[in-house]
TrEMBL record:
<keyword id="KW-0472">Membrane</keyword>
<feature type="compositionally biased region" description="Polar residues">
    <location>
        <begin position="648"/>
        <end position="664"/>
    </location>
</feature>
<comment type="similarity">
    <text>Belongs to the V-ATPase 116 kDa subunit family.</text>
</comment>
<dbReference type="GO" id="GO:0007035">
    <property type="term" value="P:vacuolar acidification"/>
</dbReference>
<feature type="region of interest" description="Disordered">
    <location>
        <begin position="636"/>
        <end position="664"/>
    </location>
</feature>
<dbReference type="GO" id="GO:0046961">
    <property type="term" value="F:proton-transporting ATPase activity, rotational mechanism"/>
</dbReference>
<dbReference type="InterPro" id="IPR002490">
    <property type="entry name" value="V-ATPase_116kDa_su"/>
</dbReference>
<feature type="transmembrane region" description="Helical">
    <location>
        <begin position="503"/>
        <end position="521"/>
    </location>
</feature>
<dbReference type="GO" id="GO:0016471">
    <property type="term" value="C:vacuolar proton-transporting V-type ATPase complex"/>
</dbReference>
<dbReference type="GO" id="GO:0033179">
    <property type="term" value="C:proton-transporting V-type ATPase, V0 domain"/>
</dbReference>
<feature type="transmembrane region" description="Helical">
    <location>
        <begin position="739"/>
        <end position="759"/>
    </location>
</feature>
<feature type="transmembrane region" description="Helical">
    <location>
        <begin position="599"/>
        <end position="618"/>
    </location>
</feature>
<feature type="transmembrane region" description="Helical">
    <location>
        <begin position="390"/>
        <end position="414"/>
    </location>
</feature>
<comment type="function">
    <text>Essential component of the vacuolar proton pump (V-ATPase), a multimeric enzyme that catalyzes the translocation of protons across the membranes. Required for assembly and activity of the V-ATPase.</text>
</comment>
<keyword id="KW-1133">Transmembrane helix</keyword>
<keyword id="KW-0175">Coiled coil</keyword>
<feature type="transmembrane region" description="Helical">
    <location>
        <begin position="533"/>
        <end position="556"/>
    </location>
</feature>
Length: 800
């Protein structure tokens, strides 16, 4: 089962002649099973053999982005590639393919750039002609008595066009440089202008009246130039005025026709680039092919080139070597003269990468685990149990049949094809997790008997209402969940608090015990028997004899019928007395006799007391004895093969591993400490952390109770404050009131409970998964298997 533990990995040397390097890497790219090791991670990309090709790919990608930007500006729809690998197989070429791609894309980009420059110059010319026309048409409005008086007084005038958004700033600057000795007239232009950057702006005509003087005129001209505004001359006679307008109108028509023709040509050219040939548009096809070339050369740069031969090291999942060797042998067909690459299996002390075969169902749960840390090679993967435990923990806190059903329906919708094209496409990868959370929320809601804060009477009741009081029926056991009669009792909140608190503790102890059991399986798998006997056994017994015993008392108390509830012993008091007064006979025993309970508790307390020093000193003591023994203790390498290794070979391999600066840590935790003093300190910290953590982690699971209580109380408040009173009123007015209040109830339920509270429950479940559960066994110091595969190349739609 690949999800339980990592796939078995094998180490190979990869040898590729330079002449066949592109062909070999192109062949390996179609296998989703090659992890290439960078021979020198500290070496910058610019110092690698094919850094020039990578830079050229970046330059071509930049041109593709420019073309794509023009297509977006012209609102040209393009088709994305549904299957990248299938496209690459259809367009499978040679190492000269990139040269052709570079030439074709550069030619298209240059042509579009030239047409774009022509369009921009025509647009600028059209705007200038329009501005001149607007100045001439609005000049009549400025020729009033005030302007004539200004001319008689020796004032000069200047006319131009400014942006409407710069009007106030322009007036303020002009006023300051002339010290207020100027008159400004502004008139808005009704029609909008299209700028070169495709912005639509509004402009206005200005006319300035200022006293004669070269200094003032130069200042005003500098301001106009700083704003990049145009200023125009106004003809003195009416005939010249009319002739100028007619000439500009003709020029405007010509510029408009040329601009329209240029836009049509650009649009047609872009439409050609959007045509579908290999199930996607040409531009997307080019993007994927160039991305593939860059990806190929980036991985080829991870190999070491010596004398025109590339040497590299790779990891392969077990059983994949035969397929790759066969593909490399068939690389050049019948042409035996062309050299081909080869792989050679060899031994190494490098820790293999962790590799799991994931699908759309297991992916989000594995991401939760990987966010905390990558599993160590061959370590038990928490992702498998997370598929059930994580949604269940969220469901415990979010327990409500109604809200769970809404979440379940949301998960069902996310599994449809329509969801991938909607605004919810971002959470589509989480669809199965949402589905399971909704399912477990319904399950726990049935246990709590809670449906939108309303109790459900599904199986009748074990209580009869007699004279206003509930009486329990003889030998009646409710079939599933909480009896609906508790919903109308006076101590309903107290009862539910007690039940949910005890349930949270039971779930928490069970969850942590499961984590410790997984630690035992890990130690047995790695044949680390010292950790098995010195850590797993005492930790398991300590947790079982303390909080496991407390859970046992809870079940025993639930299954015992007391004549008077006041005679029922307190489990918390029993646990406290077990530690503080271990030799006293319990006054209210849960067992048949107090003597029997005292004997059992003394035995458990003895085991707990014995386990602590075992965890603290046994491991350092054994390690010290092995150090003093004639046969020096040999460290076990981090990668332990299935077969028994040769002792001499093992010793040599360990010496090589110690000389490698980048070697991974050892699987056996005690091998990480060569100094006995360091091991004692480490083991003391581990023991104290586990003992104190057992208490704090158990208390941490009470968040299941707290969040569940908050969820149910909020749902009850929203229901009672909105539609509950109208439903109870009944009749016509009650129906109308319920309809009016229902939007408020729905919005509060969706915004607070379905969004905020769900997110809160999700985060608290993450805390329980990472800290309380995974800390019991999970090392999380591995690294992922990163396959060199063309499936890693995504279309532009997937990137968006």
């Amino acid at each position: 089962m690949s999800l339980f533990r990592s796939e078995q990995m094998e180490f190979y040397n990869l040898v590729i002649p330079r002449e066949s390097s592109w062909d070999v890497m192109n062949t390996l790219g179609y296998f989703d099973s090659v992890h290439i090791i960078d021979y020198d991670p500290t070496l910058p990309q610019i110092s690698r053999p094919f850094s020039n090709y990578v830079k050229r790919c970046d330059d071509v990608m930049q041109k593709i982005e420019q073309i794509d930007g023009e297509m977006r500006n012209f609102k040209i729809e393009k088709r994305y590639c549904p299957d990248v690998v299938d496209l690459l197989k259809k367009r499978n070429g040679t190492h000269k393919q990139f040269e052709e791609l570079e030439q074709d894309i550069s030619k298209v980009a240059d042509d579009l750039e030239h047409q774009q420059q022509t369009m921009d110059s025509l647009q600028e010319k059209k705007n200038t002609i329009r501005e001149n026309l607007e100045v001439l048409r609005n000049a009549v409005a400025f020729q009033n008595e005030d302007s004539e008086e200004a001319s008689l007084l020796g004032f000069q005038k200047m006319v131009g066009v400014i942006l409407k958004e710069d009007e106030l700033r322009f007036k303020r600057i002009i006023f300051r440089i002339t010290k207020g000795n100027i008159h400004v007239e502004i008139m808005d232009i009704q029609e909008h202008f299209i700028q070169q950057d495709r912005r639509i702006v509004q402009k206005c005509v200005f006319m300035l009246f200022y006293p004669n003087g070269d200094l003032t005129q130069k200042k005003i001209q500098r301001v106009i130039e700083s704003f990049s505004y145009n200023k125009f001359d106004i003809p003195t006679s009416s005939d010249q005025h009319a002739q100028r307008i007619a000439m500009l109108e003709n020029q405007l028509n010509e510029a408009d026709q040329l601009l329209h023709l240029t836009i049509t040509q650009i649009n047609k050219r872009l439409q050609d680039l959007a045509e579908v040939k290999y199930n996607c548009s040409w531009i997307e096809e080019m993007r994927i092919l160039v991305t593939k070339e860059k990806y190929l050369y980036m991985n080829l740069n991870m190999l070491n080139m010596t004398n025109s031969v590339f040497h590299g090291q790779i990891w392969l999942p077990q059983g994949q070597d035969q397929k790759i060797q066969q593909a490399l042998r068939n690389l050049h067909g019948n042409d035996k003269q062309l050299p081909s690459g080869q792989i050679q299996e060899c031994q190494t002390q490098l820790t293999p990468p962790t590799y799991y075969k994931l699908n759309s169902f297991t992916y989000p749960f594995q991401e939760i685990v990987n966010t905390y840390g990558i599993p160590r090679y061959k370590e038990i993967n928490p992702g498998l149990s997370t598929i059930i435990t994580f949604p269940f923990l969220v469901g415990v806190m979010f327990g409500d049949v109604g809200h769970g059903l809404l979440l379940f329906v949301c998960g069902l919708y996310l599994t449809t094809e329509d969801a991938r094209k909607s605004i919810f496409s971002g959470i589509v990868p989480m669809r199965y997790m949402i589905l399971l959370i909704g399912l477990f929320a319904c399950y726990n809601g049935l246990i709590y008997n809670d449906f939108l804060s309303i109790g459900l009477n599904l199986f009748g009741s074990c209580y009869n209402l007699v004279d206003g009081e509930y009486e329990l029926q003889e030998d009646c056991v409710y079939k599933f969940g909480i009896d609906p009669a508790w919903g109308s009792s006076a101590n309903q909140l107290t009862f539910m608090n007690s039940f949910k608190m005890k349930l949270a503790v039971i779930i928490g102890v069970t969850h942590m015990t499961f984590g410790i059991i997984l630690k035992g399986f890990n130690t047995l798998h790695f044949k680390n028997y010292m950790d098995f006997f010195c850590e797993f056994i005492p930790q398991f017994l300590l947790l079982l004899c303390s909080f496991g015993y407390m859970d046992f008392l809870l079940f025993l108390k639930w299954s015992t019928k007391f004549e008077d509830t006041k005679d029922a012993p307190s489990v918390i008091t029993t646990m406290i007395d077990m530690v503080l007064r271990p030799f006293d006979v319990p006054e209210k025993p849960l067992f048949e006799s107090g003597e029997q309970q005292r004997s059992i508790q003394l035995l458990l307390l003895t085991i707990i007391t014995f386990c602590i020093p075992v965890m603290l000193i046994t491991k350092p003591l054994l390690f010290s004895l092995k150090k003093k023994s004639p046969h020096q203790y040999q460290q076990i390498p981090s990668y332990v093969p299935d077969e028994d290794p040769n002792p001499e070979q093992l010793q040599n391999d360990m010496q090589k591993e110690q000389s490698q600066p980048h070697s991974k840590v050892s699987i056996q935790q005690h091998n990480e400490h060569d100094d006995i003093g360091e091991l004692i300190v480490h083991q003391s910290i581990e023991t104290i952390e586990f003992v104190l953590g057992s208490v704090s982690n158990t208390a941490s699971y009470l968040r299941l109770w707290a969040l569940s209580l908050a969820h149910s109380q909020l749902a009850e408040v929203f229901f009672s404050m909105t539609i509950a009173s109208h439903i109870g009123e009944g009749g016509f007015f009650g129906t109308i009131g319920s309809i009016i209040q229902f939007p408020g109830f729905a919005l509060a339920t969706f915004g607070v409970l379905m969004c905020m509270d769900l997110m809160e429950c999700f985060l608290h479940a993450l805390r329980l998964q990472w800290v309380e559960f995974q800390s019991k066994f999970y090392k999380a110091d591995g690294y992922l298997f990163k396959a060199y595969s063309f499936t890693n190349i995504k279309s532009n739609e997937q990137d968006d």
